[in-house]
């Protein structure tokens, strides 16, 4: 199965945000290359909110280009076989934490936003950090920092706050 086919199946089984979910499915139907950065009309991306529920904290990255605090994530790559794989790969690469696991149940949220390269149709997951996880800054980040749940709204935009709320509701 191709990554495009996996994305369609994931989105068809996602039960929330019906209008946005349909916009993603319409995009994929109209753009066979809609999974890839080269698709100038926009493309599917995958991200993960790295969370440590035992400590009540989330790990955010200070994005190198955008200079805002965000969850880990980015473009799908040819080696990704599923959207979940892409989300977990991005979270691992950007956090430096081995042993992350995705929260069961598929995507937590969808978020469409404009970026310097194109529209990102982000499929957002949550990744659970293992006990004692130590982050390592990648070349894509200016900084990585753990934030208590109640501080996220003071440093991040509404999309990250909504992702945290949806993640906490699923926990």
Average pLDDT reading: 96
Strand residue content: 25-35%
How big is the Rg? Answer: 15 Å
How many helical stretches?
5
Structure description:
With 171 residues, the protein is an alpha+beta fold. The protein has 5 helices and 8 strands; from the N terminus they run ααββββαββββαα. Strands 1, 2, 3, 4, 5, 6, 7 and 8 form an 8-stranded mixed β-sheet that branches. The longest helix has 13 residues, at 18-30. It is globular, with a radius of gyration of 15 Å.
Please provide a brief summary of the model.
The protein has five helices and eight strands, in the order H-H-E-E-E-E-H-E-E-E-E-H-H. The protein is α+β, with helices and mostly antiparallel strands and 171 residues long.
